[in-house]
TrEMBL record:
<protein>
    <recommendedName>
        <fullName>DUF5320 domain-containing protein</fullName>
    </recommendedName>
</protein>
Length: 60
């Protein structure tokens, strides 16, 4: 399975930070600030997923 099939972490809107951390790009190392920004973005995405799952449960 292609680890980029989710299609969301490696878009230009996320700047130079990719959730894959070196799986395919030119850069292999990221600054602490870039890692922090990625993790903050990841937390926001997880919260959205949780909200969607809770919404689906309510509809069942």
């Amino acid at each position: 399975m292609n680890k980029h099939s989710h299609g969301s972490c490696c878009t230009p809107s996320h700047g130079s930070v990719c959730g894959c951390f070196g799986g395919h790009g030119v850069r292999r190392f990221f600054t602490p600030q870039e890692k922090k920004e990625y993790l903050e973005h990841y937390i926001r995405q997880l919260k959205k997923e949780l909200a969607a799952a809770e919404e689906h449960l309510k509809d069942m």
